[in-house]
Amino acid sequence: MAVNKFFGAISALSLLLLLSSFGCKAQLSPTFYDYTCPNALTTIRSTVRSAISCERRMAASLIRLHFHDCFVQGCDGSVLLDETPTIQSEKTSKANNDSARGFNVIEDAKTAVEKICPGVVSCADILAVAARDSSAAVGGPSWTVKLGRRDSTTASRSLADSDLPAPFHQLNTLISLFSNKGFTPREMVALSGAHTVGQAQCRTFRGRIYSNGADIDAGFASTRQRQCPSTGGDSNLAPLDLVTPNQFDNNYYKNLVQKKGLLISDQTLFNGSSTDTFVTEYSQNPQTFSSDFGAAMVKMGDLSPLTGQDGIIRRVCSAIN
């Protein structure tokens, strides 16, 4: 009996060591919280839906926040960290300063999850789930979110400045930025379709609507100029999709075909170049767009996550424990 107990203990220890050896190679899984926090996803969804019911625009903001997280250091929650003496916050980068929104919703979701499962669910995972739930809440696709990310203890304003696309970027630059993260031009065009919801500030599209360029519909430019003067009004808002600004659909691509893309980085996707074919396809096939968008979002969620023993689980999303 004593011998059996001895070998049983050895077997248990071996199993423990074997499992720990895989810690640094842990893979994301949709079932990651099934036993440790089975109500995590419904809790996050409840918070997200409540926020979107108060402000429809929040759906776009939360999708964008996940994107801006994953493109900088991977999907590690770094975009959520506030400035400290040792952290240069990504919130103050060119792409995020006075632009990124939804931090309070993520914190609310984190607070709600901490009440039922303290120290279990990462802020990076909450961002990923919130993006999916935001899309579904405004009529867009849903997808299976893989889970198990951990949170970073660092942020990088310099990487945010260099790696995130800007509203004035042309096609070649966009293709390069997305390619650096492993995305094809088709996937880039699909992800750009997130601009079917949300709004942009006047300062991001002023140059386009006053350009008198051949790539912008004159009537559309005139309409946008009413709320975006040539000087001043930098923070005035306009919908990225003028047809159904609060509904996730394929009208974004129909707008591009009609030269009614709001941002330079939007219209450049349909301007006589290599991505015209994808824009045309998505403008004609909403189901294809929906499917491709969901697949690209899953792929984006796989960007360099911290797993296993790497990173931490933050108690609040804006600060290191």
TrEMBL record:
<keyword id="KW-0964">Secreted</keyword>
<feature type="binding site">
    <location>
        <position position="196"/>
    </location>
    <ligand>
        <name>Ca(2+) 2</name>
    </ligand>
</feature>
<dbReference type="GO" id="GO:0042744">
    <property type="term" value="P:hydrogen peroxide catabolic process"/>
</dbReference>
<protein>
    <recommendedName>
        <fullName>Peroxidase</fullName>
        <ecNumber>1.11.1.7</ecNumber>
    </recommendedName>
</protein>
<feature type="disulfide bond">
    <location>
        <begin position="202"/>
        <end position="228"/>
    </location>
</feature>
<feature type="binding site">
    <location>
        <position position="90"/>
    </location>
    <ligand>
        <name>Ca(2+) 1</name>
    </ligand>
</feature>
<feature type="binding site">
    <location>
        <position position="165"/>
    </location>
    <ligand>
        <name>substrate</name>
    </ligand>
</feature>
<keyword id="KW-0732">Signal</keyword>
<feature type="binding site">
    <location>
        <position position="244"/>
    </location>
    <ligand>
        <name>Ca(2+) 2</name>
    </ligand>
</feature>
<feature type="disulfide bond">
    <location>
        <begin position="37"/>
        <end position="117"/>
    </location>
</feature>
<keyword id="KW-0560">Oxidoreductase</keyword>
<feature type="binding site">
    <location>
        <position position="78"/>
    </location>
    <ligand>
        <name>Ca(2+) 1</name>
    </ligand>
</feature>
<keyword id="KW-0479">Metal-binding</keyword>
<keyword id="KW-0408">Iron</keyword>
<dbReference type="GO" id="GO:0006979">
    <property type="term" value="P:response to oxidative stress"/>
</dbReference>
<comment type="similarity">
    <text>Belongs to the peroxidase family. Classical plant (class III) peroxidase subfamily.</text>
</comment>
<feature type="binding site">
    <location>
        <position position="72"/>
    </location>
    <ligand>
        <name>Ca(2+) 1</name>
    </ligand>
</feature>
<dbReference type="InterPro" id="IPR033905">
    <property type="entry name" value="Secretory_peroxidase"/>
</dbReference>
<dbReference type="GO" id="GO:0005576">
    <property type="term" value="C:extracellular region"/>
</dbReference>
<feature type="binding site">
    <location>
        <position position="249"/>
    </location>
    <ligand>
        <name>Ca(2+) 2</name>
    </ligand>
</feature>
<feature type="disulfide bond">
    <location>
        <begin position="70"/>
        <end position="75"/>
    </location>
</feature>
<comment type="similarity">
    <text>Belongs to the peroxidase family. Ascorbate peroxidase subfamily.</text>
</comment>
<dbReference type="InterPro" id="IPR019794">
    <property type="entry name" value="Peroxidases_AS"/>
</dbReference>
<feature type="binding site" description="axial binding residue">
    <location>
        <position position="195"/>
    </location>
    <ligand>
        <name>heme b</name>
    </ligand>
</feature>
<feature type="binding site">
    <location>
        <position position="241"/>
    </location>
    <ligand>
        <name>Ca(2+) 2</name>
    </ligand>
</feature>
<keyword id="KW-0376">Hydrogen peroxide</keyword>
<feature type="binding site">
    <location>
        <position position="69"/>
    </location>
    <ligand>
        <name>Ca(2+) 1</name>
    </ligand>
</feature>
<dbReference type="Pfam" id="PF00141">
    <property type="entry name" value="peroxidase"/>
</dbReference>
<feature type="domain" description="Plant heme peroxidase family profile">
    <location>
        <begin position="27"/>
        <end position="321"/>
    </location>
</feature>
<feature type="signal peptide">
    <location>
        <begin position="1"/>
        <end position="26"/>
    </location>
</feature>
<feature type="binding site">
    <location>
        <position position="76"/>
    </location>
    <ligand>
        <name>Ca(2+) 1</name>
    </ligand>
</feature>
<dbReference type="GO" id="GO:0140825">
    <property type="term" value="F:lactoperoxidase activity"/>
</dbReference>
<dbReference type="GO" id="GO:0020037">
    <property type="term" value="F:heme binding"/>
</dbReference>
<feature type="binding site">
    <location>
        <position position="74"/>
    </location>
    <ligand>
        <name>Ca(2+) 1</name>
    </ligand>
</feature>
<feature type="active site" description="Proton acceptor">
    <location>
        <position position="68"/>
    </location>
</feature>
<feature type="site" description="Transition state stabilizer">
    <location>
        <position position="64"/>
    </location>
</feature>
<dbReference type="InterPro" id="IPR019793">
    <property type="entry name" value="Peroxidases_heam-ligand_BS"/>
</dbReference>
<keyword id="KW-0325">Glycoprotein</keyword>
<dbReference type="GO" id="GO:0046872">
    <property type="term" value="F:metal ion binding"/>
</dbReference>
<dbReference type="InterPro" id="IPR000823">
    <property type="entry name" value="Peroxidase_pln"/>
</dbReference>
<comment type="function">
    <text>Removal of H(2)O(2), oxidation of toxic reductants, biosynthesis and degradation of lignin, suberization, auxin catabolism, response to environmental stresses such as wounding, pathogen attack and oxidative stress. These functions might be dependent on each isozyme/isoform in each plant tissue.</text>
</comment>
<dbReference type="InterPro" id="IPR002016">
    <property type="entry name" value="Haem_peroxidase"/>
</dbReference>
